[in-house]
From TrEMBL:
One of its GO terms (biological process) is amino acid transport. PANTHER family: BLR7848 PROTEIN, LEUCINE-SPECIFIC-BINDING PROTEIN. Gene3D superfamilies: 3.40.50.2300. Residues 1-23 form the signal peptide. Residues 26-361 form the Leucine-binding protein domain. It comes from the Bacteria. Keywords: Amino-acid transport, Signal, Transport. The keyword Acetylation does not apply. Belongs to the leucine-binding protein family. This is ABC transporter substrate-binding protein. It comes from Candidatus Dechloromonas phosphorivorans.
Length: 381
């Protein structure tokens, strides 16, 4: 082979290698989660879910011919740290999309950064403030706190309960839940005759419950909080001999709540995504195959029960992958537009139908009203 031909072949090989490298660049999915700290019971299954399915998708050849790479940080349930890690994901790691934000506080501290950078962000947190008012690049997978209050009030109305005591946590989720509950009560003919709060680190809510117990006319109690708090409330409720119907929010929709509250949780009702009850869904329920396969995969990988919180991460990742496929690229504006155009996407939280005015895309029918009976979840018919 003469020298100039050899040079051409080498040049072609280099160009080809360069193109190959470009094509093989991984799609970077950034994530800031609360894997430790008070919100770890949310963040831990979220991270496990993302790791499980990123590996699974890569095994099957990735997305648009590229492998996925998960770049994640633990904010330790601290919203200020979430802000710093989001900056790092955007500026240093150069991620293509963000799936994370375990808590409302963490999400809201990251939101201005992703808006400024123009990076699609799918949050895994609950409060309605994340998507109202609509932010161009911010989306979310869990049902909102407002929807939880509406679902609870719908059920109370059916049971003829109109005078309600609210007990909420002073954290981001609880505070937003309190505000939304107060805002929609009137719409359902509900009067809040007592309105108490407790701190996220409180270990005894008997004083608040004693006040509620002695409030004239109370017919039911609605608790809005996350983690240990609502379980402590449930136990205190039993200890004080209160027999009124007790409702919780979707903030406790996990088997951990059953373990923490124990027998005291008997009769408690709460709204939940379908993820807690795969085996109890009707055979023709469109969500049944999705929640069943997620539950089986998660249990096989981690030898532990699934939670709705892991489900939010599954939904976030799958919505991201679906949008990237439809955009045919990782161009951030195109992916954002594809996310906003999501229609009829069946996931663990429900069927997502997004629009320019709705960056969550779930309606009340995607919530199931559950009651704890015999230490297990049952569907309220």
């Amino acid at each position: 082979m003469n020298h100039s031909v050899k040079k051409l072949v080498t040049g072609a090989a280099l160009v080809f290698a360069a193109f190959g490298a470009i094509a093989a660049d991984p799609i970077k999915i950034g994530s800031v989660l609360s894997v430790t700290g008070p919100a770890a019971f949310l963040g831990d299954p979220e991270l496990k879910t993302l790791q499980l399915y990123v590996a699974e998708i890569n095994k099957k050849g990735g997305v648009i011919g590229r492998q996925l790479q998960l770049v994640h940080y633990d904010d330790g349930s601290d919203a200020n740290k979430a802000n710093g890690f989001t900056k790092r994901l955007i500026d240093d790691d150069k991620v293509d999309i963000l799936v994370g934000g375990t808590t409302t506080g963490a999400t809201m501290s990251a939101a201005p950064l992703v808006e400024k950078a123009g990076i699609p962000f799918i949050s895994l947190a609950g409060a309605v403030v994340i998507v109202e008012p609509v932010k161009k690049f911010v989306f979310k997978t869990p049902h909102t706190d407002r929807m939880a209050a509406e679902k609870v009030f719908e059920d109370m109305k059916k049971r003829g309960l109109t005078k309600v005591a609210l007990l909420s946590e002073t954290s981001g989720f609880g505070a937003s839940g309190k505000k939304e509950t107060e805002a929609v009560a009137g719409k359902y003919g509900i009067t809040l005759v007592a309105n108490e709060t407790y701190g996220p680190k409180d270990t005894d809510m008997s004083p608040q419950l004693t006040k509620i117990k002695t409030t004239p006319g109370v017919q039911a109690v609605f608790v809005f909080g996350l983690g240990q708090g609502p379980a402590i409330v449930t136990k205190n409720y039993k200890q004080l001999g209160i027999t009124l119907p007790l409702y919780q929010s979707h903030g406790v929709a996990s088997d951990d709540f059953l373990k923490l509250a124990g027998p005291a949780a008997e009769g408690v009702r709460l709204p939940s995504p379908a993820q807690l009850i795969p085996e109890k869904l009707a055979a023709n329920d469109p969500q049944k195959p999705v929640v069943t396969s997620y539950e089986q995969a998660y249990k096989a990988a981690y030898k532990t029960d699934v939670s709705t919180f892991g489900g939010y991460a599954y939904d976030g990742l799958m919505l991201a992958v679906d949008a990237i496929k439809r955009a045919g690229s990782t161009d951030k504006a195109k992916v954002r537009d594809a996310l906003e155009a999501t229609k009829g996407f069946v996931a663990t939280s429900g069927t997502f139908n997004m629009s320019p005015t709705d960056h969550m895309g779930l309606d009340l029918s995607s919530f199931r009203m559950l009651e704890i009976k015999g230490g297990d979840w049952t569907i309220v018919q």
